[in-house]
Design a protein that fits this description.
Number of strands: 14
Mean pLDDT: 89
Low-confidence stretches: none
Order of helices and strands: HHHEHEHEEEEEEEHEEEHHEEHHH
Strand order of the largest sheet: 1-5-2-4-3-6
CATH topology of the largest domain: Barwin-like endoglucanases
Number of helices: 11
CATH architecture of the largest domain: Beta Barrel
Strand content: 15-25%
Helix content: 10-25%
Length: 415
């Protein structure tokens, strides 16, 4: 509404969201003849006149919602009448056809795109949630291990996907059970959240002749290594400009923003100060081992952690992110905190929970696998009873099921 007003349009004098919804509900019933040719299936006119309190307490309901069906309509077309002039259903025969662009020696893999479990569209809303971002924090390239071997790429490292129309960079994974010959890349990352991970740039321009939908599910591509000399991550309370690196991804954390980086050339004190925006005198601590290719630094303001950066050579491990995130909740860092920060390991470090599986309760992959082995768990319901994982929204239950199978297979091999 504010944008419309600034552009000079009138009629956008709404005070709250429920007023917009009320107008939407009224319009859905306008000239909507329930028995005539002008009948529209979408009708929520029964929700018109709803006050703000009722709107804020509104629970999901299936439309149509009308005066005759104030609680919604569980099943559309149950009366045998469909949304066509004659009231009859129509079957549309769609002859099958092969993709327009076939794979070949230059582009031997078929790219499929889609969404991830915890994200939606380009993350303009879901990307603001640290909890939702914890499950798949970075753009990924999911392909079969044998294909990865043939392409010369390794799990956890960066790779480039190239089609005839564009290219993008993301991290390799084998976690989705992808069939040989296929590659999956999620749609969610844009130039706002990653330097070069917009999969739309790769998709072929062929569209469906009726709907105009692009051929998102089949674009011939090749996958090859994206070589960097070092990898790093930055945690900062404020947004940073991370120009001058080969690759970056921005992830929302709880009270901070995380940047995953890959680069070439030196990455030491002057570079780190530039990235973190630290000039002149500052409470700055650092550890630099040029021989090992390790660099760690932190910037503090009034004793409170403002930002930190961790750098390691390509392929070398970086510290776990979870315990570092906890330092941003402290009002001031003690001397012991500063020492462990520069050492790159948490004091009294417990078992690594692993990548997040259950975003609702923050349960990691390693925690779930350990519970399955130690307590002889056999079903997702038993995992939920033990760890709560899968007990809220339920979206991680299929992944828990896969972990149960994986642990059983591992145990069978080691017997």
């Amino acid at each position: 509404c504010e944008v419309a007003r600034r552009m000079g349009f009138t009629g956008f004098d709404y005070e709250s969201a429920h007023e917009i919804f009320d107008e939407h509900a009224q319009l859905s019933g306008w000239r909507n003849d329930a028995d005539g040719a002008g009948r529209r299936v979408f009708d929520i006119s029964g929700m018109a006149g709803m006050g703000r309190q009722a709107y804020d307490a509104l629970e999901p309901v299936q439309w149509p919602v009308t005066g005759g069906e104030p609680r919604g309509t569980p099943r559309l077309f149950g009366d045998g009448r469909f949304a066509h002039a004659g009231g009859r259903a129509r079957f549309v025969a769609t002859p099958p056809r092969l993709p327009v662009h076939a794979i070949d020696d230059d582009y031997p893999l078929a790219l499929n795109t889609g969404r991830l479990r915890d994200q939606w569209h380009t993350m303009t809303r879901t990307g603001k949630s640290a909890r939702l971002s914890s499950h798949s924090p970075e753009p990924l390239i999911d392909l079969h291990p044998n294909d990865a071997l043939l392409c010369g790429v390794r799990e956890g490292e960066l790779a480039r996907v190239t089609s005839r129309w564009g290219a993008m960079v993301a991290r390799v994974t084998h976690g989705g059970g992808i069939a040989r010959g296929s590659v999956f890349v999620p749609i969610h990352w844009s130039g706002q959240t990653a330097s070069d991970a917009r999969v739309g740039a790769l998709v072929n321009p062929v569209v469906d002749p009726v709907s105009g939908e692009p051929e998102f599910k089949h674009t011939p591509v090749r996958v090859e290594p994206f070589v960097v000399e070092w990898q790093a991550f930055v945690l900062s309370r404020t947004a940073l400009a991370v120009d001058g690196v080969a690759n970056w991804t921005r992830v929302q954390g709880e009270g901070f923003i995380r940047y995953e980086l890959g680069g070439r050339g030196p990455a030491h004190a002057s570079w780190a100060r530039g990235v973190l925006g630290v000039d002149g005198e500052a409470d700055w601590i650092e550890y630099d081992d040029a021989g090992a290719g390790v660099y760690r630094a932190a910037h503090l303001v009034d004793g409170r952690l403002e930002s930190c950066v961790f750098v390691a050579r390509r392929g070398a491990p970086l510290p776990p992110r979870q315990w570092l995130a906890g330092l941003f909740r402290q009002e001031a860092l003690l001397a012991a905190d500063r020492a462990t920060l520069l050492a790159g390991r948490a004091p009294q470090q417990g078992p690594d929970p692993g990548p997040t599986v259950c975003s609702c309760f923050g349960v990691g992959r390693n925690t779930i696998c350990a519970a399955i082995r130690e307590r002889k768990l056999e079903t997702p319901a038993q995992v939920t009873a033990c760890l709560k994982a899968g007990g809220n929204c339920g979206s991680c239950v299929p992944e828990i099921g896969k972990l149960l199978v994986l642990v059983r297979c591992d145990e069978a091999v080691t017997r």
